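Duplicate of earlier report; Regulatory protein, luxR family input re-posted below.
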Amino acid sequence: MKISSILTEFSRTHNIADTMFALDIKNSKLPLGFSKVNKASERELILSSSLTAIKYSITSRKRWARKDPNTEISLSSEYHVWDYNDWPKFKFSPNDDLLKFGYEKKVSVEIPCMINPNWVGRFYLMIDNSRHIEPQELTKLYKDLSNIHYMIIQSKIEDINPFLDYGLIREIDIAILSMLANGYSRESIAKASYLSSRGVDYRIVQLKKKLCASNHSSLINSAYHNFLIK
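Output:
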């Protein structure tokens, strides 16, 4: 079954208009100075139950990701109801985009990643009525979302890697990591990558920072662990 169909079925079961999903990196595992909020508008590897939800996500993130305090709160919270009660009245707000696409409320839910403790799965529940998610519903929600999260990472892990989606790791970085893992010398990597030896050294230093690695061995291990190389 397609992931979009699974998300649609979950939404129907729980009386939710739409459901979206994205893999994320734990804040404690991000390189120093990196801001997920600043990159949120550029993310593309987001799964959804409908085209409407995708259109809303693109529109809202491009317009509001850096301005809406809920963005940062949601990226560091296990459960967050996006609230616009304090937004200045009579001023265009993220809530207007919610209403424009037929939603009344957005809730984000964080699920621990089962295959990588440095990642989390983040679901966005789009609600089109005034219903509240009652406390007794949360246990069932978390259970169902955990199951969906497991199905997604089993079938789509290489397509939704957050290191790639945030632009932290690029194709040339993956090529360098793969060559390092296969024992290539610095000179060989430079020749294959059309870089100078110093250019290779610089990229390796940056990769160590991004993957929280202290040496070549831990860098390669981290690359494997984060599904950047096979």
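The mean pLDDT is 91.

Merging into the original ticket.
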